[in-house]
Amino acid sequence: MKFSAQQIAAALKGSIEGNENVDVNSISKIEEGKPGSISFLANPKYTQYIYNTNASIVIVNNDFKATEPVKPTLIRVENAENAFGQLLAMYSQVKLDKKGISPQGFINETATVGENIYLGEFAVVAENAKIGNNVKIYPQVYIGENVTIGDNTTLFAGVKIYSDCLIGKDCIIHSGTVIGSDGFRFALQDGGKKIPQIGNVIIEDNVEIGSNCSIDRATIGSTILRSGVKFDNLVHIAHNVEIKENSYLAAGNVVAGSTTIGKNCMFSGQVGIIGHLEIADNTMIAAQSGVSKSIKQPGTAVMGSPSMEITKYRKNYIHFKNLTDIVDKLKGVEKKVSES
After folding, report:
1. For 6, how many CA atoms within 13 A lie in the half-sphere containing its CB?
2. How many structural domains comprise the chain?
3. Listed GO molecular functions (predicted)?
C-alpha cells in the first residue's frame, strides 16, 4: 500500500513542505528511516536525526525550524506525536481490514454469520454460534457451540472460545488466548473428584485481551469482564471472577476464583490475588505484589507480598534493607550488657 504526502497531509490536516507527490509504503523511527518510509519528530533530543535520515516524509510540529538543509518532505501539524499516533491507527485499520471466508474455514450450518466478516484458514464456527457484522476471525480460531461474538470484534490466530461464552462489540483478543476453559475446582474430600464447571464467560464491549491469556468459565453463573477492561499478555482469570469497567492488568497477573475487582484499577506485572476478595475502585497494585486481604478503600495503592499500603511498605523496606546492620548492633549491645 502506497500513500502520497498529499494524501497523508489531508488526513492529518497538515501542511506540506517539499514534494507533495512523494510516496511511502512503510513507517519507521526517524533514526532508522529508509527511502519509502514515513517518520515523525516530536522530542527535541532527536532533532539531529532529521538532517541525515533517509525517510521520505517526516511529520514535524508547526514551530519546527530547520538549522540545516532537510532532505525529506515535511508535513507540519499542530502536534507531531499525536498526528503520528493517528497515522498508526489509520495504517493499522487499513492493514487489518480483511474480508472474505476462506474455503478452508468451516461454519456450521446452524451458525448465524453477519455481514463483511473475515474467516481465515482452518477457523471453525460451531453449532448455533452467532457472529456479528465486520467480525475478523483469523486462521485456526475455534468458536464453540452457542458462542456469541459482537460486531467489529477481532479474534487473532489461534484463539479458542469454549461453548456458551458471550463476547461483546469492538473487542480485540490476541493469539493463543483461551476463553471458557474449566475453572480449577476439585472435591478434595472426595478423592479429588472434578467439580463440573457449567457456567460461562461474559466479555462486554471494547475489551482487549493480550496473547496467551486464560479466562476460566464459572462453576455456576459467569466469569465477567466489564466494558473497557484491558489485559496484557499471560493473564489468568479464575472461575467466577468479575472485573469491572476500565481496569487494566499488566502481564503475569493471576486472579483466583470469585474475587471482584472494581472499576479503573491498575495492576502492574506479576500481581497475584487470592480468591473471594473485593478490590475497591481505582486501586493500584505494584509489580509482584501478593494480595491476601480485601482492599475496601477506593484509590488505595499497595505493594509487597503480602501487600500493604505502599507508603508503609516503603518505610518498612528501608528497615529490611538494613536488617543485617540492625542485628549486628543488637548483638553488640547484648554483648556489652552481658559483660557489664
Report:
1. 4
2. 2
3. N-acyltransferase activity; UDP-3-O-[(3R)-3-hydroxyacyl]-glucosamine N-acyltransferase activity
Do 44 and 84 have their domain in common? yes
The x, y and z cell numbers of residue 158, run together, are: 489461534
Which residues are CB-contacts of 10 (< 8 A; sequence separation ≥ 6)? none
Q: Which domain holds residue 290?
A: 100-309
Q: How many residues does the chain have?
A: 340
Picking from 28-42, 186-200, 205-219, which range would have the lowest pLDDT averaged per residue? 186-200
Residues designated catalytic = 239
**pLDDT single digits (tens) 74-110:** 999 999 999 999 999 888 888 888 899 999 999 999 9
Q: What is the pLDDT of residues 290-340, one digit of tens each?
A: 999 999 999 999 999 989 899 888 888 888 888 888 888 888 888 888 887
Give the angle 147-150-151 at the CA atoms, nearest 5°: 145
CATH of the domain at 75: 3.40.1390.10
Look at residue 320 and tell me if it is in a domain.
no
* Consecutive H or E run containing 301: strand 301-303
Instruction: With 0.70 as the threshold, say if the pTM is over it.
Output: yes
Cell of 273: 490475588
Cα–Cα–Cα angle for 206, 289, 319, nearest 5°?
150
Domain shared by 207 and 252, yes or no: yes
